[in-house]
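Course exercise 7: structure representation. Students receive a sequence record and must write out the corresponding structure in token form. The form below is the worked example handed out in class, using Probable nicotinate-nucleotide adenylyltransferase (213 residues). Read each field label carefully; the graders check that inputs and outputs are placed in the correct fields and that the protein name is recorded exactly as given.

STUDENT ID: A-19
EXERCISE PROTEIN: Probable nicotinate-nucleotide adenylyltransferase
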Amino acid sequence: MQNTTLKQTTIQTAPDELVAVNGQRPQVGIMGGTFNPPHIGHLMMADQAANQLGLDYVVFMPDANPPHVDHKETIPAIQRVEMVKRAIAANPLFKLSLAEIDRGGISYTYDTIVTLKQQHPEIDYYLIIGGDMVDYLPTWHRIDDLVQLVQIVGVERPGYSKQTPYPVLWVDAPTIALSSTQVRQKVQQGCSIRYLVPEAVADYIEEEGLYHE
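STUDENT ANSWER:
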């Protein structure tokens, strides 16, 4: 039942509409994460990467069960998907994919990229991650194979080094020290989250009573 509801909220991606122009292959960004909740930092990262790299669009892909070394509690996928849908609605460069949620289980990025490339070998994919996640790359599932399949794009974050043994393409974007954890903490403390998340996301959090416990 939950998957049926989720599919009704999906913003359809349209890779079949992308064709090579002047010999250039379509370029698509992938922005994965738990998005618990999505905040303005996520949107800034995706928008800066899309514009600086000339991407055709960026797909936001909420995970089913994050493979983090440090366990993170999350809320049901249906609520995270609805927040992402609201967060990205105003930007035509942004789309939503339920690929990892529909697949279920642990959301290993390697498995996702392999599937995408099998389905659309004509597309070049760019995996957009924050500078904090670059530090985690050595722990990622089949990371040495993953970097052969996709270009990893790192977005600087305050307090995190750009040094990494992996081929990361860094994007020069405004740095903002904001995380989903901080947003949840603000809600728990009864503080304002205005300007930390899109207004539509803040409204949904209030409507659903999320993060108050």
